[in-house]
């Protein structure tokens, strides 16, 4: 066999191996990037692809050789004497040219790959690397070729890589490894696919490897796991259960805490549509369906979470109130929502407490209505005997006046005074009970004329010696005129009553306003009161002074509190014994929301 023939066969053999490596490298690179090779069947298809690459290369080589033959024939036709030279060129230099072209084609394919590709001999020396490997180390291919891993890596890393190569040669099969390799002061993670290369006699002559850097993927996965762990810990700390509803399959995936919350078995945490509906109270299924439909049918992805309170069935066959919240998760592919994920919070105790409060409030309202009806009835019934007593006293005074001595006439006067006091009490009680039924007719009212009118009326009953001091301007209020006049009348009357024994009684009015409330303060220089009794001040029939010193029914300030509260305001009082008192009431600037609060206590405040 001639040297030229032997060289040609060896060249073709080497070229075949290199083209095979190129084809496998390119195919595996693309396949790994696109996620093809996940099953055995996919690897069979990959093998067929390698054969296809090999066939295409052979066809390209045949075409190239055909073109060169045509060029030679053309040269022979042009210069018959040149036949020997052309024959010598084809026979001598043809294999080297084909080998060089194959090598260049292989290198171009490998350098184009974004992965690291290399070939090592059975001793672990590098025979070939692509540009990605060279750039990884900042060395040229020639500088790497002929070296082994011991010269490039630490002892631990080189031993790991060598062990993987030996495993591939021993098993004769493709293997995948996660290899951690230091790079510029940090450790990078690679998925390395390694497989043996054989010569024409079937002997393993090299190991080919394709390594893909997955460091960022692993880092992101680690961060995602850490984030999920934090969410899990936060959910556990807050007593929350996580859930996910698949809008395509209509299945519920929930964590074990939901079933622990419901005292349900946790053999499975995935429920289908039927099993999910079985957990929900029948009275709330329609509302849940309607709420979900409205939430999902919005033209854009809702920014606010889905929220709904409902009852779920527990393992003890009881119903537990929970708060369900969720948000849509839309994939980046088609923009259509696929999942609804969220949390479940146990609000059973809170819900039952709210229901208890509602029941108690309703009982209080019912009791108040009964008391109003009772007081109204009693007041009417009490007037009949009082009228009889008053009539008999009149008869005794008119027809039997000569019979009574001075003490008898005094006792008749006491009876008359008591009847009149009782009548005033009954009238005040009737007025107080009517307040709960009166319709409030609000209008915008100037307050200064009401203060002046009431003061003149009340001051006349106390001798007209008191003085009223008003600010330059008082705010207009949005209130019922008749009810506001009752408030002002009671407060001014109260101020004059407890300051009447002063040499110069004074009633002073102050007012301030903000964006929410008008505040009025009525001050006097009277006897004041002890602040330890302030809680009694605005309650019915509660008096801080004895009746023989200061007359009154004990209902006036309770009436003030009730009227002000019905307008949406508040009352308060502060005093110093012997130095006077200050009574404050507020009225909202705008019409308030109705309240169920009933007066019963005062709020002390500094002025």
UniProtKB/TrEMBL annotation:
Its EC number is 2.7.13.3. CDD domains: HisKA, PAS. It catalyses: ATP + protein L-histidine = ADP + protein N-phospho-L-histidine. The chain crosses the membrane at residues 17-36, 42-59. Residues 306-359 form the PAC domain. The keyword Secreted does not apply. Residues 102-172 form the PAS domain. One of its GO terms (molecular function) is phosphorelay sensor kinase activity. Keywords: Kinase, Membrane, Phosphoprotein, Transferase, Transmembrane, Transmembrane helix. Residues 377-591 form the Histidine kinase domain. Pfam families: HATPase_c, HisKA, PAS_3, PAS_4. This is histidine kinase. It comes from Catalinimonas alkaloidigena.
């Amino acid at each position: 066999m001639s040297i030229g023939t032997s060289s040609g066969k060896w060249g073709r053999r080497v070229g075949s191996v290199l083209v095979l490596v190129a084809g496998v490298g390119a195919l595996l690179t693309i396949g790994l990037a696109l996620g093809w090779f996940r099953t055995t069947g996919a690897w069979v298809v990959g093998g067929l692809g390698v054969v296809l690459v090999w066939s295409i290369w052979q066809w390209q080589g045949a075409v190239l050789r055909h073109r060169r033959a045509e060029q030679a024939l053309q040269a022979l036709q042009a210069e018959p004497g040149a036949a020997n030279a052309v024959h010598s060129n084809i026979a001598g230099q043809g294999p080297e040219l084909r080998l060089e072209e194959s090598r260049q084609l292989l290198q171009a394919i490998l350098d184009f790959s974004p992965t690291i590709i290399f070939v090592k001999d059975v001793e672990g020396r590098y025979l070939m690397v692509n540009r990605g490997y060279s750039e990884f180390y900042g060395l040229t291919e020639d500088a790497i070729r002929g070296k082994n891993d011991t010269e490039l890596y630490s002892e631990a890393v080189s031993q790991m890589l060598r062990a993987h190569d030996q495993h591939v040669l021993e098993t004769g099969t493709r293997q995948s490894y996660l290899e951690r390799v230091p790079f510029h002061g940090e450790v990078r993670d690679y998925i390395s696919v390694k497989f043996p290369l054989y010569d024409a006699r079937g002997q393993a002559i090299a190991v080919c490897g394709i390594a893909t850097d997955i460091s960022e993927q692993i880092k992101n996965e680690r961060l995602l796991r850490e984030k999920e762990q934090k969410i899990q810990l936060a959910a556990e700390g807050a007593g929350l259960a996580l859930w996910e509803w698949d809008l395509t399959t209509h299945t519920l995936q929930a964590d074990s805490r939901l079933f622990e919350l419901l005292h349900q078995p946790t053999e499975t945490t995935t429920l289908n549509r039927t099993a999910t509906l079985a957990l929900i109270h029948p009275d709330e299924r329609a509302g849940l369906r309607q709420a979900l439909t409205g939430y999902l049918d919005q033209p854009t992805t809702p920014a606010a979470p889905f929220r709904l309170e409902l009852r779920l069935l527990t393992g003890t066959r009881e119903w537990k109130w929970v708060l369900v919240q969720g948000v849509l998760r839309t994939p980046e592919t088609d923009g259509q929502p696929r999942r609804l994920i969220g949390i479940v919070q146990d609000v059973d105790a809170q819900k039952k407490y709210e229901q208890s409060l509602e029941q108690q409030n309703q009982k209080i309202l019912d009791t108040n209505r009964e008391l109003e009806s009772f007081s109204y009835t009693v007041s009417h019934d009490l007037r009949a005997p009082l009228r009889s007593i008053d009539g008999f006293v009149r008869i005794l005074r008119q027809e039997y006046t000569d019979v009574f001595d001075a003490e008898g006439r005094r006792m008749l006067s006491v009876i008359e005074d008591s009847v009149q006091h009782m009548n005033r009490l009954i009238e005040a009680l009737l007025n107080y009970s009517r307040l709960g039924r009166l319709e409030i007719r609000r209008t915008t009212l100037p307050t200064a004329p009401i203060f002046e009118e009431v003061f003149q009326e009340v001051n006349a009953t106390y001798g007209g010696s008191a003085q009223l001091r008003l600010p330059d301007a008082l705010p207009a209020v949005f209130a019922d005129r008749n009810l506001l006049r009752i408030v002002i009348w009671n407060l001014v009357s109260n101020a004059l009553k407890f300051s009447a024994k002063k040499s110069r009684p004074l009633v002073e009015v102050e007012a301030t306003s903000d964006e929410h409330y008008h505040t009025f303060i009525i001050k006097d220089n009277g006897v004041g009161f002890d602040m330890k009794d302030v809680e009694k001040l605005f309650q019915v029939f509660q008096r801080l002074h004895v009746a023989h010193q200061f007359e009154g029914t004990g209902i006036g300030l309770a009436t003030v509190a009730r009227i002000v509260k019905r307008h949406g305001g508040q009352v308060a009082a502060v005093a110093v014994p012997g130095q006077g008192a200050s009574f404050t009431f507020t009225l909202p600037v705008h019409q308030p929301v109705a309240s169920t609060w009933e007066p019963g206590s005062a709020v002390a405040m500094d002025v």
